[in-house]
Amino acid sequence: MEKKNIYEAKAVSKEEEARQKGLAGDRLFTLSTQAIGEVEGKTVLDVGAGMSTALGAWVKQRGGEYIAFDIQEGVIREHAQAGHVAIQGDIAQAIPVLPTADIVHVRLVLMHLIRQKRNRAIEEVFRAAKERCLFIEPDWTEFCGNAVVNRLRDLAIRILGQRMDLYLGRTLFTVIANVLPMSNGRLITEKRLPPESKKDYRELVQMTSALKSNAVENMTECILATEEIALAIAKEAQKDNRAFFTPPRFTLVEVKKGCGQD
Ligand SMILES: C[S@@+](CC[C@H](N)C(=O)[O-])C[C@H]1O[C@@H](n2cnc3c(N)ncnc32)[C@H](O)[C@@H]1O
């Protein structure tokens, strides 16, 4: 059964808002900013921008223009309040919905779309990009740690795995290469963030927030387990001698336009 996009039906919960805002300054933020690179005089379109306005601030500070695009009204309001150009729309529609931009950034969005919509979104992003498109998606294959971390991972796979593709990063390159016709002249490259071990549990604490908001619609048993694991992770995060864990990997696929070859 294909998974339903959790963002189509309901507003962003407080927990999810906090999680997205907490991402600023972390490894995902660095991955995005390094991939975007020089922005002076350029327009960056952020598709499925989410609640964090940090990337927009980063682009503007460096002399670029930033446009947020998202399906959620709350996200658009947040960006408008931060002084960003913000457009509400559904990336997966049959008609063109995006304004053109030099660089189009799409992070953790395709994982929420069913295949047909995901393919349409890739085509639309490619059409809108004048120079490059950047797609970033997760791959949970190597995510592991001690017993507490593994319990969190297994519960997350059970709850979130029903609604989104937690492993899209593994096949992202092929998915994109299959959708974009060769004749359009594009160069596709892939970078997979190495699975570095870390002791910083902040990312896991944020993950428990995402679980809490999604478990609400799930079984009571999951809600109880989430509460218990969230407490255990919070406790673990405070320990000085906490164990290392390997977080989910991220895959970045860059599509350059006008290159005439693969
Ligand atoms: C997991 S959040 C990622 C937010 C941000 N890109 C980040 O990396 O922190 C997914 C975002 O994509 C948006 N989204 C989901 N489906 C969409 C669609 N069909 N069209 C436009 N935006 C969509 C959601 O509203 C949400 O803000």
Number of strands: 7
Mean pLDDT value: 87
Radius of gyration: 18 Å
Oligomeric state of shown chains: single chain
Q: Describe the main β-sheet briefly.
A: 7 strands, mixed
Give the ligands present. S-adenosylmethionine
Description:
The protein has 262 residues and is an alpha/beta fold. It has a domain at 6-143 and 164-196 and 249-257: Rossmann fold (3-Layer(aba) Sandwich), CATH 3.40.50.150. It is built from 10 helices and 7 strands. Strand 2 (65-70), helix 5 (73-81) and strand 3 form a beta-alpha-beta unit. Helix 2 packs antiparallel against helix 9 (202-215).
What is shown here, in short?
This protein is of the alpha/beta class. The chain has helices at residues 6-9, 14-22, 27-36, 54-61, 73-81, 115-128, 147-160, 168-179, 202-215, 220-238; strands spanning 43-47, 65-70, 85-88, 101-107, 129-139, 186-192, 249-257. The protein contains 10 helices and 7 strands.
Question: Could you name the key traits of this structure?
Answer:
single chain, alpha/beta, seven-stranded mixed β-sheet, 10 helices, 7 strands, 43% helix
Task: Show the helix and strand layout.
Blueprint: H1 6-9, H2 14-22, H3 27-36, E1 43-47, H4 54-61, E2 65-70, H5 73-81, E3 85-88, E4 101-107, H6 115-128, E5 129-139, H7 147-160, H8 168-179, E6 186-192, H9 202-215, H10 220-238, E7 249-257
Parallel strand pairs: 1-2, 1-4, 2-3, 4-5
Antiparallel strand pairs: 5-7, 6-7
Bound molecules: S-adenosylmethionine (SAM).
S-adenosylmethionine (SAM) binds at residues 5, 7, 20, 23, 48-50, 52, 70-72, 75, 90-92, 107-109, 112.
